[in-house]
Amino acid sequence: MKKTITPYTAILLLLFTNIQSAAQEEINFNSAGTTLSGTLILPGGNGPFPLVVFVHGSGSEKRSNSKSRAKDFAKNGIASFIYDKRGVDKSGGDRNFPQYFSFDTLAMDVNAAIDELSKRKDINTNKIGLVASSQGGWVAPLAASLNKSISFLIIASGSVSTVGEDNLFERNVRLKGEGFTESEVKEAEAMHIVDQEVSRTGNRFDEFSKMWEQYKNANWFRRVYLSDQPNPPGSIYRNWYKRVVDFEPVNYLKQLSIPILWLYGDSSIDRFCPVALSMKRLNDLKASGKNYEVISFPGADHSLQKKSKDLLTEAQTFEWLRSNGILDK
After folding, report:
1. Using CA of residue 151, residue 155, residue 161, residue 165, what is the dihedral sign?
2. Domain end marker among 191, 226, 244
3. What pLDDT score was predicted for residue 22?
4. To the nearest 5 percent, what fractions of the chain are helix, strand and coil?
5. I need a surface site. Which of 51, 156, 196, 215 has the fewest CB within 10 A?
6. What is the residue range of 305's domain?
């Protein structure tokens, strides 16, 4: 006899399914003596499930920044782990760390999370990947080069450039967008190149100081430099920037043979990531045999939004996961 499902029963079943597909578990894990705090979001069923660990963007990023997207992965059968960045919210560590970060430490934290989650029977340790955005696009290749259990990466708006190149790009685009002339932008760029060299080597500070005096009354100056005096060699900022300015993700990408999905906004709109340069370098890597898919979204910004609305990037993401055998077709 055929059973009839009433509207009330249908609602209960829908609610039960949603609860089953959004099971959450708070998990603390240790990384170099510091306790970090996160949330594991599990699909319905018993597993074992593929796993993605979300890698933070810049700044004091909490786990909540990635929660909506993590739930989308769980609904599609992939366990997701999100956590508060070191020094942020419930995670321990120096509260200044997000400002004066270390790529090595960020990668270490990612891999410590993977080590903890790999102990679980409901995680498929053969299908562990990273979902990274912006600054995380530098961290993810480094973490994967150190951890052979990472079998795929998904990177949104990740700069395939050094930090120094990225900063020069961001500053130039910002000044142009604010209406400064080409000659003014070139003045700021020339000064910034010397500024980076002071941080990198401790040299050229006298030259930088002269440029400071030369341009301190220029229209663009206070849009770039906020202090009253130039930062001397050996300052806290310069000692930190020296460690990150020449970080080169290509060095780690060359070591990896895993599939990577790259998602970008519009090169004419994204003012934080050198999209055109990044895509050129990725095409060079693809030509060397790397398993990359690179997708750009016309009209989209750095957050992969178009006119303040989220783009439906999940369709491409989950199709790519199926095509690489991470999800069943």
Report:
1. negative
2. 244
3. 58
4. 45, 20, 40
5. 215
6. 23-161+248-323
